[in-house]
Amino acid sequence: MFKILAKEKLSPEVFRMVLLAPNIARERKAGQFIILQQGGDYSERIPLTIADADSDAGSITIIFQAVGETTHQLATLEPGESIANVLGPLGQPTHIEKYGKVVCVGGGVGVAPMHPIAQAMKKAGNEVKIIMGARNKSLIVMEKEMAAIADELIICTDDGSYGRKSLVTEPLKELCETWKPDLVVAIGPPIMMKFCTATTRPFNVPTMVSLNTIMIDGTGMCGGCRVSINGKVKFVCVDGPEFDAFAVDWDNLMMRLGTYKPQEQDAHHKCHVGLQIKEGEA
Amino acid sequence: MVHDNEQLEFQAQELLARYKGRPLTNKERLAIPVQDMPTQKADERVLNMSEVALGYTEAQVQVESFRCLQCANAPCVKGCPVRIDIPRFIAKAAEGDYAASVAVIKESSMLPSICGRVCPQESQCQEFCTVGRSLKTVDKAVSIGRIERYVADWESVHGQRSIPEIAAPTGYKVGVVGSGPASMTAAADLRRAGHEVVMFEALHKAGGVLVYGIPEFRLPKRIVQDELDTLLSMGVHIERNFLVGRTAKLSDLMEREGFDALFIGSGAGLPKFLDIEGENLIGVFSANEYLTRSNLMKAYDRNKAGTPLYGSHKVAVFGGGNVAMDAARTARRLGAEEVSIIYRRTEDEMPARKEEVGHAKEEGVRFLYLHAPTRILGDEKGRVAKVELISCVLGEPDASGRRSPVEIPGSEALHEFDTVIVAIGNASNPLIEKTTKGLDVNRRGNIIVDEETCATSMKGVYAGGDIVLGAATVILAMGQGRKAAKAMNEYLATLGEDG
Questions:
Q1: d(C-alpha B104, C-alpha B112), whole Å
Q2: Which single residue of A33, A118, B330, B471 has CA 20 to 30 Å from A127?
Q3: Is residue A277 part of a domain?
Q4: CA–CA distance, B364 with B357 (Å, rounded to integer)
Q5: Could you read off the pLDDT of A229-255 as tens digits, one per residue?
Q6: In chain B, residues 403-422 whose CB comes closer than 8 Å to chain A
Q7: B306 neighbourhood in chain A, CB within 8 Å
Q8: Which among A84, A89, A252 is the nearest to B280, CB-wise?
Q9: Does B91 reach chain A within 8 Å, measured CB to CB?
């Protein structure tokens, strides 16, 4: 059992949780993730990113958006309660070295997995500029933590309710033109990562993305997470989650994410009723 | 073959009355017909997940045991990977002493209720049976597996499931990586010797392929749970949610966590794909994913399960092994109206157990032999719409001794399907090898071990099961688990001498 030490609601749909998981806290490196299952015979297994960890306290921090049945149920748990199953750390750690100038782009809750990466990049001696984007102000998470790392922090919202009213690709393009980064790391919704890739490609800036796909076991056993990288089949759980953005077949990735769309839409409505999230709030 | 279970029982009762309680000549034994397995009716069982083969009745098991000639040279034993004393356990079953019968099996095999169900007996013990040889077909061999299953099930219903005796504590701590058949066997034998045993399982449920892979209708999960419960009551500690190589490295377990020896039984958990066009379309699944969703995640119970299932009507399963049969029969139960096995060779070369092939046919699974998939085509939404198949003929035997399929150029044709399940085998998971210095593996990524001891290239580290053999069988995995445990017990004893 993995005890919940703390919980915070960051927005109507975004939650931060600190879990007691000493083994994972000790081993995890930037870029890795966990798989969680809430116990019993019927709960699904879902991959979640690790936003932070404290190896002394034996704790890890997860940030998740209540978008599916499991994340909605997760959101109803309180400190003191436990999660039955947490497996990790999974995936290959981010390759950290001194590149020089690094731009980190985080979209929505994609800021959570970006946090340890930006932290490690900074520690390795890189100059780090961070672009954070979200649909609106309430979905901007970890601003304080990111500000503490960034040499420059640029915040954008789609509706202009906070920071600059633009997509993340606008400031990214400007930085490519003026600052000339040596590496771009982009994590967020696939559509955002796809357009970040299209933005950096003309500038030939090496670009790395972290993919979040359908997954069951997370150990390489099911192959549900397979993606096409330079035309070759790779498993996100063991070969990734990070890949060279220019090698990713984005259309195939987004297509495969829709495998269970009909089933998911059904479940989502039921969850919102349970969490008392009002229409339009999320 | 479709049988009426009542009729089978009636016949068995008649035969029992005729033969019981008197010595039988070999001629009489050879004249007794094979006792067929009572099963759920095909049209009923495709609507449920319950076990298909219901097991012999007491009359059936005795009559079938009468068929055994008790050959002095026991050719059947040579066909058994763990050398169970088959004539002796059958003789006990014929006497009606089931407790003694199962005790004979347990001298050599930890998991008779599982092996009685999933062993490919027709290519092991039953292949060499004198009765089958005399009657010119392995189909008429003594049904050793069915008798094994009966006595094992009898024990769990009637007998006190005996907890094996545990030797005095040795003070040594042993880790077992994985919780499938090889690991379960090794863990039991290591614990019996008095060592502290910790089993590491990555998933949220222990049991390995017996739980995530083999479906309920072929191996009820309750049986696997019984075996795991026995391990727990012996004092084996099962640590779930622990992926060796990630949650801790093998070397961490040895150096930091104080394990004196380790057994790696992590299995062959990396699905192979064909590398053909369209394999990343929506609706293409590895058999592992398809079966894991249904078995481990219980997605077949749609009202309760959180894990979704893909809605399928016309399913193509690539492959001809047991996993392909399991996937095809699962698809039928999950509501697919039309399920086809696509296999490059013919029925004779198909590696699946005969009984599973027979059951699949009864359940309406179609078999398309001598066909190989060449590409998968999708609709405008990227969902599987068609599969292109090429016809084959059988050519010369290949390295495996099976005649290899030769494609006929120009014979490609499109077939309509909405789902593809790829069941062409598994490679070994490279995680432990990649995160462990000094562990030797072969070209295919299988851990290299000493044939006699299952010792790896690392001192104190042993391995067995599919991670060594490639995708093999439960009984072979068990055999290796037992062999390794014996060598590990000897190894640990030498540590005492040094210290």
A1: 11
A2: A33
A3: no
A4: 11
A5: 999 999 999 999 999 999 999 999 999
A6: none
A7: 42-44, 69-70, 267
A8: A252
A9: no
List the structure tokens of B21.
């309680």
CA dihedral A100, A105, A111, A112 (to 10 degrees): -40
Nearest-by-Cβ selection for A42 from B203, B280, B301 = B301
> Is the CB of B310 less than 8 angstroms away from the CB of A259?
yes
Nearest C-alpha neighbor of B457 from the set B443, B471, B436, B477: B436
Q: Which residue in chain A has the smallest CA separation from B307?
A: A44
CA distance B248 to chain A (A): 7
How close B93 gets to chain A, by Cα (Å)?
A: 37
Residues A86, A105 within the same domain? no
Residue A14 lies in a domain: yes
Q: HSE of B359 in the Cβ direction (CA atoms, 13 Å)?
A: 30
Max Cα-Cα span within chain A: 54
* Cα–Cα distance measured from residue B380 to residue A73, given in angstroms and rounded to the nearest whole number: 35
For B18-37, what is each residue's pLDDT tens digit?
A: 999 999 999 999 999 999 99
CB-count burial class (<10 Å; 0-12, 13-18, 19+) for B133: middle
Q: In CATH, what number is assigned to the domain containing residue B363? A: 3.50.50.60
B263 and B136 together in one domain = no
State the Cα–Cα distance between residues B431 and A223, nearest whole angstrom.
Answer: 15
In a domain, B93, yes or no: yes
Residue A272 lies in a domain: no
Report the helix count and the strand count for chain B, using DSSP H and E: 20, 16
| Residues B399, B380: Cα–Cα separation, whole Å | 42
* Chain B contact present for A3, CB below 8 A: no
Q: What is the pLDDT of residues B166-216, one digit of tens each?
A: 999 999 999 999 999 999 999 999 999 999 999 999 999 999 999 999 999
- Do A134 and A193 fall within a single domain? yes
* Shortest CA distance from A253: residue in chain B: B280
Residue A274 contacts B where some CB pair is shorter than 8 Å: no
Q: Is A44 on the interface with B (CB under 8 A)?
A: yes
Among candidate residues A15, A106, A28, the one with its CA nearest the CA of residue A67: A15
- CA–CA min distance A134, chain B (Å): 28
B311 and B186 share one domain: no
Nearest Cβ partner of B240 from A45, A85, A223? Answer: A85
Q: How many domains does chain A have?
A: 2
Task: Give domain status of residue A270, yes or no.
Answer: no
Distance from CA of A31 to the nearest CA of B (A): 13
Q: Do A222 and B286 touch (CB under 8 A)?
A: yes
Q: Please check whether residue A239 touches B, CB under 8 A.
A: no
pTM, to two decimals:
0.93
Average pLDDT estimate for A177-204: 96
Q: Do A6 and A14 form a contact (C-beta atoms < 8 A)? A: no
Which residue spans within B35-137 are E strands per DSSP? Answer: none
pLDDT in the model for residue B497: 57
Distance, in Å, from the CA atom of A47 to the CA atom of A88, rounded to the nearest integer, reads: 10
A118 min Cα distance to partner chain B (Å): 22
**Per-residue pLDDT reduced to its tens digit, A105-134:** 999 999 999 999 999 999 999 999 999 999
Task: Quote the tokens at residue B6.
Answer: 């009542």
Chain A within 8 Å of B288 (Cβ-Cβ)?
yes
Q: Is the dihedral of CA B482, B485, B491, B492 positive or negative?
A: negative
Facing residue for A41 by CB, picked from B280, B288, B298: B298
Give the structural domain span for B344. 272-426
Domain of residue A44, CATH code = 2.40.30.10
Are A108 and A227 in a shared domain? Answer: yes
| Residues A151 and A222 grouped into a single domain | yes
Residue B177 backbone phi and psi in degrees, to 5: -95, 115
Tell me if B415 sits within 8 A of B316, measured CB to CB: yes
CA dihedral sign of residues A114, A117, A120, A126: negative
Q: B293 CB near a chain A CB, below 8 Å?
A: yes
